[in-house]
Amino acid sequence: MIWRAATQDEIQAYYRDEFTQHLAARPAHITTTGPRQYALAFREPYPTRTDGRPPRDFIRRDTRTADGQSEYFDHMGDVLDFIRNPVRNDPLDDLADPDTVDQREPVPDAVYYALDHWTRSWLIMVDIDAKDIARNRARHILEAEAVDPDDLTSDELFTKAGIRDGLPNGYPYEFTDIQTAIEQGFEVADVFETRFNAEETQVFYTGQGVHVYLYDDDPDHAWDAASREVLNTILTERYGIAVDEQVTADRRRVARLPGSLHADVSRIVTPIDSPRFDPRTDATPEFLA
Asked: What would the pLDDT profile of 205-220 be if each residue is shown by its tens digit?
């Protein structure tokens, strides 16, 4: 079992070679110009072309013009080229020419797409993060030791509760927290199917947690803000699931692109069909083989 950040060369090799097969198997709603945006995060800020504008470590790129009539990407190959070489294939031509700066062209530390969509109802996605589960667990540990967790910074909380000392060492969670996130993800899918009569759900392992999708359209409400708040309340208060409520509710949110690499832990964003999935050994890129 290897749990570590990927190097820049490993990330580049992944998107050059292995990623293509995962991109071809992406969910049907992820098309060239269906999501309103694709986004990339860089490990280090990269200079921009505009004088006085600070370097960027996160960029969003629209897939269409504001009126929806013109497209910035002609086919999925254009999106792939943008991911592989974001400066040379930037549709906005916003980042500095790599031939004019003393810095290697960046590779994406993370690849995202917008949940807001041009051609279908706004997607429902629930995000469950192992760090949030670990934070709740740390608070209970410290409260049992008569320590007020509100007096501690986030780093102090994880350290004092001993969570950073557990496997994988140095992370703000333990493997048990990831496993809990996976189990809760399938519980969310069950809630979708039994309570909301959902016909199509999917759970994705994301590297340090899970995303749970409800693909069914909601013709009555289009999953408006009020209905999403109700969904958050049901999941958190009735079922005790560690949902990131902002992800469910915020129209501007982006999600990790299925098939992309979570470079901080060298794991692939992967659809899973059972809580028996083992993040320590599964969803590993070829460079860890």
From this structure: 999 999 999 988 766 6
Structure tokens at 91: 């549709």
Which amino acid type is present at position 118?
A: W
Angstrom CA distances, 183 to 177, 179, 203, stand at 10, 6, 10
- Extents of the domains making up the chain: 30-114, 124-250+268-277
Q: For residue range 37-74, list pLDDT tens digits in order.
A: 999 999 999 999 988 889 999 999 999 998 888 999 99
Q: How far is CA 100 from CA 47, 49, 83, 133, in A?
A: 10, 10, 21, 45
The pTM score is: 0.94
Q: Of the candidates 219, 141, 137, 124, which has an alpha carbon nearest to the alpha carbon of residue 179?
A: 137
* Local structure of residue 260 (DSSP, 8 states): -
Residue that the structure tokens 């995303």 belong to: 211
Identity of residue 190: D
Q: What are phi and psi of 279, to 5 degrees?
A: -65, -15
